[in-house]
Write a structure and sequence with these properties.
This protein has helices spanning 131-139, 161-167, 169-173, and strands spanning 6-8, 25-27, 38-40, 47-50, 61-63, 71-73, 82-85, 91-95, 105-107, 117-121, 149-153, 178-179. Helices cover 12% and strands 24% of the residues. The protein has 180 residues and is of the alpha/beta class. The termini are far apart. Strand 10 (117-121), helix 1 (131-139) and strand 11 form a beta-alpha-beta unit. The protein has a five-stranded parallel beta sheet, with no helix packed on it.
Length: 180
C-alpha cells in the first residue's frame, strides 16, 4: 500500500448510500499509504474513522459525505485541496496546508454538521478571510457556542461591516475554547 495513490471505495459522483453490513468500519493503516492523494469513501455510511489520515502529507482530496466519520485532522503541511465532509464531522484541523481554500471545504447538507473543534494554523489561503469561521459560529445555536473550540494561528483578517458585526460572536465561544 505504500505506492497507492487512490483509495476509491465510495463514489463522490453518486448520491445513493452504499450499504455495507459491517456496522462500524474503521479504515486503518492509512499511515502506510504515504503516497495517497485521493481518498473517496462517499456514502459508505458505516465508515467511522480514517485512522492515519493525520500522517498523509500527499493527500489532495478527501470525499467523506455520507460517512459517519467525525475527526478530520490532517497532517502538518498536508497538500489537501478539497474536503467533502459528512454531517457527523466534529473536528476539522488544518496546519500549514497551503492549497486549501474555503470554497473547497464542503459540508454535507446545510450548515457545518456537528463541528465543534476547528483548528486553522498558518494555512495561506485560509488566513485572510473571517467569513468561514464567523459563519460557523453564527450557525451554531447560541446556547452551544460556549462548547466550541477554535484555534486560529497566523490569521490576517480584513473586516467589512458584516464581519465587524459578526466579530462579537467570538465572545460567545468563551476563553477556554478560543486560541488566536
Amino acid at each position: 500500500g505504500t505506492k497507492m495513490k487512490e483509495v476509491l471505495v465510495g463514489d463522490h459522483t453518486r448520491t445513493d448510500l452504499v450499504n455495507i453490513s459491517n456496522t462500524s468500519l474503521k479504515f486503518s493503516g492509512l499511515d502506510k499509504a504515504s503516497k495517497l492523494e485521493v481518498l473517496d469513501m462517499t456514502n459508505i455510511k458505516n465508515a467511522m474513522a480514517f485512522d492515519g489520515l493525520n500522517t498523509l502529507l500527499n493527500i489532495r482530496e478527501v470525499y467523506a459525505k455520507g460517512t459517519s466519520v467525525s475527526n478530520f485532522t490532517f497532517a502538518d503541511g498536508a497538500m489537501i485541496e478539497r474536503i467533502e465532509l459528512p454531517t457527523t464531522v466534529e473536528t476539522l484541523s488544518l496546519t500549514r496546508s497551503s492549497s486549501i481554500s474555503y470554497d473547497n471545504i464542503v459540508f454535507e447538507g446545510d450548515g457545518y454538521g456537528r463541528l465543534v473543534n476547528l483548528t486553522i494554523d498558518n494555512c495561506n489561503q485560509l488566513m485572510n478571510d473571517p467569513e468561514f469561521v464567523l459563519n460557523w459560529i453564527a450557525s451554531t445555536p447560541k446556547e452551544q457556542r460556549k462548547n466550541l473550540s477554535v484555534n486560529l494561528q497566523g490569521i490576517n483578517w480584513t473586516f467589512n461591516d458584516t464581519t465587524i458585526a459578526n466579530l462579537f460572536l467570538l465572545e460567545e465561544v468563551g476563553t477556554s475554547g478560543m486560541s488566536v
